[in-house]
Amino acid sequence: MCHYKSYSYLFIFFLIINLVPRTTIPAEISSPLKPDTAYTAKKSEPVTHEVEFSIIVTPPYHCKLLKVWVPVPQSDTAQKIEDSLFSTFPKNVEPQISSEPIYGNRFACFEFHEPHGAQIITHRFQAKVWNLNWQLEPETVTTVSNWPDQFAPYLTPQSIEDQQQFQQVLKQIGNASEKKSSGLMQAMNWIDQNLTYDHINASLQADANHALSKRRGHCSDYHGLCATMGRAMGYPTRVTYGLALYPKNSPSHCKMEAFLPPYGWVSYDISETQKLVKSIQSSSDLTPQQKQNFIPAARQRLRSGFRENSWLLLTKGTDYELAPPAAKPVRIVRTAYVEADGVALPEPDPANINQREFSWMTSHRYTADRPFKKPFKDLSTLNRD
Question: How far is CA 189 from the centre of its chain?
Answer without folding.
Answer: 17
